[in-house]
Amino acid sequence: MMFIDPHIHTSSRTTDDYEAMQQAGVVAVIEPAFWMGQPRTQVGSFQDYFSSLVGWERFRASQFGIKHYCTIGLNSREANNEALAEEVMELLPLFLSKEGVVAVGEIGYDDQTPLEDKYFRAQLELAREMDMPVMVHTPHRDKKAGTSRSMDVCQEHGLAPSEVVIDHNNEETVKEVLDRGFWAAFSIYPHTKMSPERMTAIVQQYGPERIIVNSAADWGISDVLSVPKTANLMKEKGVPEEHIRLTCYQNALDAYGQSGQMNEADLLTPELVDQRKKFSGNSILRGGQTPRVDKSGS
User: Fold this and answer.
1) Could you tell me if 7 and 216 are in contact, meaning their C-beta atoms sit under 8 angstroms apart?
2) pLDDT of res. 54
3) Per mean pLDDT, which range of 105-109, 168-172, 208-212, 217-221 is the poorest?
4) DSSP-derived secondary structure letter, 32
5) I need a labelling partner for 281 at 20 to 30 A (CA). Which of 16, 137, 170, 242 fits?
């Protein structure tokens, strides 16, 4: 079975992770722009980071047979630095127009401050003007109220629920998100957020429509194989194979494919891996390593 991990921060991961994901059936990833673990202090840091998401990281993933897409946005934590946020906002239209960018995101609320609200709304307006889907980060504190508020604000700004993925759901939020017609994404995270067992129970209760499974793997304790592992558990628990395919592959493709940047044909006929290639003169190989070079039919 083929899988898409539609929320993973691969810039924070190693080449071993790419190899493991490819061997487990992950054919594509979506990497949302996010907080790096400490606040950035210069707009140039955002510019270089966004450039790496549409450049080097796409190349690095391709060297392991995985198609890399990304979302671009100002995350909620750093929206609280107003002077810097204003400069980042000026960058966004340029990077949202780049090849492989499938949504504005991840944006939304963290502590639900006035500045988070200001830049969430500004980016929703940008998404509407550029006719792009949106990936919404929901707050970890006061999640239920924050999730409801996020959907209210999206609709205030004229975004159709079918254009918005509400992420980091749990049992408290899923019913309202689905009832209101939004996509409901879930991050399978060790010890917190959502476990494979709870995710399986949610799919059994609500069915597969508009439900999306992701790993949200980053620089913290997380698992890049959360999507295939959850799919395997669903199979063990008797979830129909079509429901697994929808929640772990097709729904992400349908949601982010609305950008016009993500086509299934690219996943079904991937580019052959040739690790002799370079990006801006740089290779993933280090001295003495033997490159992987796939040949047609191999």
Assistant:
1) yes
2) 98
3) 217-221
4) E
5) 16
- How far is 61 from 66, CA to CA, in rounded Å? 5
Amino acid making up residue 206: Y
Any idea what DSSP says for residue 65?
T
- In degrees rounded to 5, what are phi and psi of residue 46? -65, -45
150 within 8 A of 166, measured Cβ to Cβ: yes
What confidence tens digit (pLDDT) does each residue in 114-145 have?
Answer: 999 999 999 999 999 999 999 999 998 899 99
* C-alpha–C-alpha distance, residues 69 and 47, integer Å: 17
Tell me whether residue 88 is exposed, middle or buried, using C-beta atoms within 10 angstroms of its C-beta: 0 to 12, 13 to 18, 19 or more.
buried
Contact 63, 41 (CB under 8 A): no
> Could you give the CA distance from residue 89 to residue 219 in angstroms, rounded to a whole number?
25
Largest CA distance in the chain: 57
Nearest Cα neighbor of 149 from 125, 96, 113, 183 is 113
Tokens 């996010």 belong to residue: 34
Stated pTM of the model: 0.96
Bridge partners, residue 136, by sequence? 107, 166
Residue 267: predicted pLDDT: 95
Indicate the residue type of 164.
V
Who contacts 103 (Cβ-Cβ below 8 Å, separation ≥6)?
Answer: 30, 32, 71, 127, 132, 133, 134, 135, 165, 256, 259
DSSP for 82-123, please give it: HHHHHHHHHHHHHHHTSTTEEEEEEEE-SS--HHHHHHHHHH
